[in-house]
Structure formats: structure tokens, C-alpha cells
């Protein structure tokens, strides 16, 4: 037997093998072709076909059909098992010439495939698309969480600043309401302008007719007393002698 074309197929247990065997011009469409499993230099026939007829094996797992218009023999093997591994031939019955040689390797489900055939292209693309979709969902959730955290932080800072400003405004209002008009609160020096105005208030007792020799007394609150002598301001008050009457 001499093969015309050959190919290698790898399948997992339970998969289906679909093979097409185009036959040359010298093979008639009405002539018989068969599918066989090569063992020990012999190739026992599994199923045969001719001229648009579809045939199947006794167990129904192998089907064969001859398409005389396309000049192609199609073979389907379903529910593959590890023992189905081996070399298969598509043969022209009259001459015994091999139309196509197939080397089939069926591996068990728990064994990792080293080579992925054309049938693995679609599952791989589906896995890639699922992975991309999961990545997009994860990134969207992370960005949403970060946005919510930023919003909560901004709200908390705004409320804290508002309370601080409200508390400061209330203190200033209380200080202003408790202070007599035109008089600074004793013991407090709020700004440089208050420093230039001098003490908040001074009680000065003067007799109706003071003399230069009479002492002057001034009451200062203890909270207004400066501990640093550099910040103490002094005032000298002098009294002129009243004019004497010429009669005296």
C-alpha cells in the first residue's frame, strides 16, 4: 500500500475526529472506498462507501460518505478512546491504492496535551475573552471603591472645617457681646492695634484740687499686669500750680 497524503491528528478521549479524503481524477465517484485501521502490516476494513452512500460501523461510532460532486470521502469517528490510537487509511477498493493516511493519537482526559489541534482554537479564544472580561470588571470595582473613598474623605474634611469655622465665629461673637463699647477685655491683647491703644482701662482718682506733691493712685487688674518690663508703658502726669491771687 502506498499513501498519497498523510497527516497527524491528536484528540482527547470522548472527542470526535472528522477527516476528509479528496480522491484523484483516476478514481471514479461510483467506485468503492473504505476506511481501515492498520495493524501488523494488515488493514482490516472498518466501513465502506460508494457514490453518495453513507455507511456506518456496527457500533455506530464510525460513519463514512462519498461526495462524488466534491470528489471527497468524509469520515467521522465519535466517542474516541485511547485504544483507538494508531494509523488509519482511506483506500480505493479496486486498486488498493491509499488515498490518505491518518496518524491518530488519543490521550486520556487527565494527561495534558502537548500539541493543540485546530479544534482547540475556539475554546482558547473563549477563555481569553472571559479573562479580559473578568479583568475589566475587577478594575471597574477597584476604581469605584477608590472614588467612594475619595468622596467620603472630602465630605469628612468639609464637615470638620465647617464646624471649626462655626466654633471660631461663636467665640468671637461672645467676646464682642461681653465687651463694653470702646473698651477692650481686661487681660487680653488680641492684635497689634490693641497694643497701641494701651491698657484696657485705668481707674484714676484725682482730688478736686490736687497739688504737685500729692500722690496719684491707679488700679490695674492683675491679669493686665505685664510680667516683662519691656512691655510696660509709663505715663507722667504733672499738675501746674494754680495762679495765686494778688491779694494773698
UniProtKB/TrEMBL annotation:
Residue ranges of the TM segments: 136-162
Keyword Protease assigned: no
Keyword Disulfide bond among UniProt keywords: yes
Keywords tagged on the record: Disulfide bond, Immunoglobulin domain, Membrane, Signal, Transmembrane, Transmembrane helix
GO molecular function: signaling receptor activity
Family matches, as SUPFAM superfamilies: Immunoglobulin
Residue span(s) of domain Immunoglobulin: 6-107
Sequence ranges of Basic and acidic residues compositional bias: 170-198
Region listing for Disordered, in residue ranges: 170-220
SMART domains listed in its UniProt record: IG
Top-level taxon: Eukaryota
CC annotations in GO: cell surface
Pfam families linked: V-set
InterPro entries per UniProt: Ig-like_dom_sf (IPR036179), Ig-like_fold (IPR013783), Ig_sub (IPR003599), Ig_V-set (IPR013106), Immune_rcpt_domain (IPR052314)
Protein name in UniProt: TRML2 protein
Amino acid at each position: 500500500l502506498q499513501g498519497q497524503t498523510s497527516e497527524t491528528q491528536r484528540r482527547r478521549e470522548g472527542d470526535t475526529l472528522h477527516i476528509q479524503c479528496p480522491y484523484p481524477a483516476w478514481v471514479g465517484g461510483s467506485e468503492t472506498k473504505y476506511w481501515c485501521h492498520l495493524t501488523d502490516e494488515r488493514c482490516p476494513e472498518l466501513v465502506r462507501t460508494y457514490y453518495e452512500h453513507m455507511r456506518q460501523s456496527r457500533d455506530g461510532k464510525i460513519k463514512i460518505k462519498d461526495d462524488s460532486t466534491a470528489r471527497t470521502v468524509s469520515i467521522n469517528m465519535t466517542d474516541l478512546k485511547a485504544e483507538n490510537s494508531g494509523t488509519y487509511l482511506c483506500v480505493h477498493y479496486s486498486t488498493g491504492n491509499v488515498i490518505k493516511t491518518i496518524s491518530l493519537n488519543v490521550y486520556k482526559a487527565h494527561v495534558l496535551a502537548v500539541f493543540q489541534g485546530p479544534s482547540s482554537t475556539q475554546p482558547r479564544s473563549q477563555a481569553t475573552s472571559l479573562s479580559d472580561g473578568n479583568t475589566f470588571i475587577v478594575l471597574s470595582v477597584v476604581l469605584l471603591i477608590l472614588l467612594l473613598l475619595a468622596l467620603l474623605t472630602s465630605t469628612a474634611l468639609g464637615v470638620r472645617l465647617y464646624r471649626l469655622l462655626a466654633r471660631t465665629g461663636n467665640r468671637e461673637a461672645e467676646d464682642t457681646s461681653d465687651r463694653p463699647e470702646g473698651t477692650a477685655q481686661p487681660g487680653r491683647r488680641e492684635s497689634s492695634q490693641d497694643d497701641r491703644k494701651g491698657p484696657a482701662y485705668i481707674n484714676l482718682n484725682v482730688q478736686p484740687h490736687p497739688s504737685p506733691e500729692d500722690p496719684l493712685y491707679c488700679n490695674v487688674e492683675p491679669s493686665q499686669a505685664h510680667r516683662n518690663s519691656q512691655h510696660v508703658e509709663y505715663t507722667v502726669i504733672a499738675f501746674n500750680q494754680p495762679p495765686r491771687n494778688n491779694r494773698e
